[in-house]
Amino acid sequence: MAITPAATSAPRMRPVCFRLRVRPELVPAYRERHAAVWPEMLQALAETGWHDYRIFVADDGTCIGTFTTRDLDASLAGMAARDINARWQAEMQPFFEGLDAPADRSFELIPLAFDLDAQLAALDPSPRS
């Protein structure tokens, strides 16, 4: 029986985008906290499949996060099982508007509408270097 390339390749990375709302008066402090995230938290994110993770925060408190992962549910569950995440979420909770639960269980997922690389690949399926 021949093994197809799809059977041997790892699952594709999935882009994820989410939205939250930071209290506008706390935006500078939120940015400051995220400029120096605890090393143990950074390591936990990397170990649980959060890749290319970025957070953008506008002055009005609009907060947009993006990352890639092979399995969103597994990445969320992996962080939920970490004590460091519980501590970080408790520290961050006061920064957000309208959340009854920690931010990592409350963010709004935003569906992907356009992917330049995927559309270019569909036009020319030859491998790119």
Ends: how far apart? 31 Å
What is the overall shape?
globular
Number of helices: 6
Write down the domain tally: 1
Corresponding CATH architecture = 2-Layer Sandwich
Sheet with the most strands: spatial strand order? 2-3-1-4
Biggest sheet character? 4 strands, antiparallel
What is the third-level CATH name, the topology?
Alpha-Beta Plaits
Q: Helical proportion?
A: 25-40%
CATH class, named Alpha Beta
The SSE string, one letter per element, is HEHHEEHHEH
- Poorly predicted sequence stretches spanning 5 or more consecutive residues: 1-6
Care to count the β-strands? Answer: 4
Structural class: alpha+beta
Mean pLDDT: 91
Q: What percent of residues are in strands? A: 15-25%
Gyration radius, to the nearest Å?
18 Å
Key attributes of the depicted protein:
129 residues, alpha+beta, Alpha-Beta Plaits, four-stranded antiparallel beta sheet, 4 strands, globular, disordered N terminus
Compact overview of the structure:
This protein has helices at 5-8, 27-34, 39-47, 72-80, 83-92, 116-123, and strands spanning 14-21, 51-57, 62-69, 108-109. With 129 residues, the protein is an alpha+beta fold. Strands 2-3-1-4 form a 4-stranded antiparallel sheet, with no helix packed on it.
Please explain how this structure is put together.
- It comes from Agrococcus jenensis.
- The protein has helices at residues 5-8, 27-34, 39-47, 72-80, 83-92, 116-123; strands at 14-21, 51-57, 62-69, 108-109.
- With 129 residues, it is of the alpha+beta class.
- The chain has a single domain, classed as 2-Layer Sandwich (Alpha-Beta Plaits), CATH 3.30.70.
- Strands 2-3-1-4 form a 4-stranded antiparallel beta sheet, with no helix packed on it.
- Strand 2 and strand 3 form a beta hairpin.
- The model is unreliable at 1-6 (pLDDT under 50).
